[in-house]
Amino acid sequence: MSRYRFIAAECGHYPVRRLCQVLGVPASGFYAWQADQQRAVGRPKTPAWETALVKVFGVHKRRHGTRRLRVALWEKGHRVGRQRLRTAMRRRGLHAL
Fold this sequence. Notes:
InterPro entries: Transposase_IS3/IS150/IS904. By secondary structure, this protein is mainly α. It has two domains: about 5-40, no CATH class; about 50-90. It contains six helices and no strands. Helix 5 (about 65-75) crosses helix 6 (about 80-90).
């Protein structure tokens, strides 16, 4: 068990600053870890339109750019703009021929 997890488990019984002092970790480090844990829980998975993007891109044999991909995704019910498509394609390394 990490120090920060121990502090999170015991913070109901003892003050956080005291626990951090005893364990030799900065309180700001604990609060940063706690915020990161909350962000990780609330972080969404890959959106459905991105998985549909990869499928449509593969079906059309890498011949469609953002304009045609946007139309194909709109026909499938995914409302997404060209710039967002462009960003997702760059992130995934997809390039039209």
